[in-house]
């Protein structure tokens, strides 16, 4: 495949943008090679600037559950933009999408919209500290919640892929209040509550981990977090930036029947435009300015064009059977890949919840950071490049989720399996 134009653009970008990218996750640091510069997308396909076509399983890291350039979403964006792009004043569309979120999440009475998942989780932490009056937080090794200081400790996703899970510039004063648990190990969290019975404001967790690759919660883990936090007067924050409207319309909290105190959302609720949100009970959300003493603001929060994209996306996800269809597509892909890897006698462990999944080059179970890090990164890297050369665009990191959208067809899945068979030959 000729990718000269991508390389030219990357050379230019690197002179004026750090690493040539506006997010390290896009820099292919984990798999090597020059990142593709994409020119356009439609449905399950993306095209790079050299005109090469790929079946896309990155889906912009999660938002594009309907597929790229969905007609109703594009029309909604176009109509909203024609009436003005931003007012800095409340608009009816904010009411509409807030109603959609409140109706979809039983644990959310009120919701505040922001511009990214990072802002959502950063604000949720501040809210938990304001509400409880306590300083410490618990997150999990390999958990990624965006790039706010308190959460860049043992972070997953791009931080992990680039070997900087504890970012430079995060001062000791921040890091000391961030306690680390092991995902799927409730005892590791109990130990922190025993050590700090009255100092922990919250536990923040990706209810299905996506940023060390997909790692589902084992039976009892989420229930254990719910009971531990309730018993110690701490808040449970579900970071559903990936899982919200992904694993079910009502997110992981619907799938697992656990009611968090605060929920963070992003990605899908913006339909590809910059949107994040955090919400919870009336009692907790009344702490948020201008009602309460916890301040949080944003020039473009609730932006009418972004809200229009989110509304058009969520409304389509209300169609009956959408999540069964998504799950069936992903199940078919996963089963086919297991077969192809078994034929080639190459160990593969697929962790999948609904339409989010990760291929671990690992013969055993992958249940947390220890088993994630024992997986064969080189094997993944070889597979990534061989699939790319055949027009299949996987996430450029073993520590990410891949996504199936409603636009992925059986033909796409069959083409992916054929490419995998050739990649392993
Ligand atoms: P953003 O600030 O990137 O919108 O959201 C941060 C965030 C928060 N919580 C979870 C569970 C997330 O997965 C993310 C962001 N995800 C990464 C990829 N897994 C975004 C990709 C990137 O950083 O470019």
Protein traits:
Aspartate Aminotransferase, domain 2; 2 domains; binds ligand KE4; alpha/beta; 15 helices; 38% helix; 14 strands; single chain; four-stranded mixed β-sheet; Aspartate Aminotransferase, domain 1; 425 residues; seven-stranded mixed β-sheet
Describe this structure in words.
- By secondary structure, the chain is an alpha/beta fold.
- α3 packs parallel to α11 (304-316) and α12 packs parallel to α15 (410-424).
- 51% of the residues are buried.
- The chain is built from 15 helices and 14 strands.
- The strands form three sheets. It has a seven-stranded mixed β-sheet, with helices on both faces. A four-stranded mixed β-sheet has the order 1-2-3-13. Strands 11-12-14 form a three-stranded antiparallel β-sheet, with helices on one face.
- The two termini are 19 Å apart.
- Bound molecules: ligand KE4.
- Ligand KE4 binds at residues 23, 25, 61, 116-118, 121, 144-146, 157-158, 206, 210-211, 239, 241-242, 266, 276, 400.
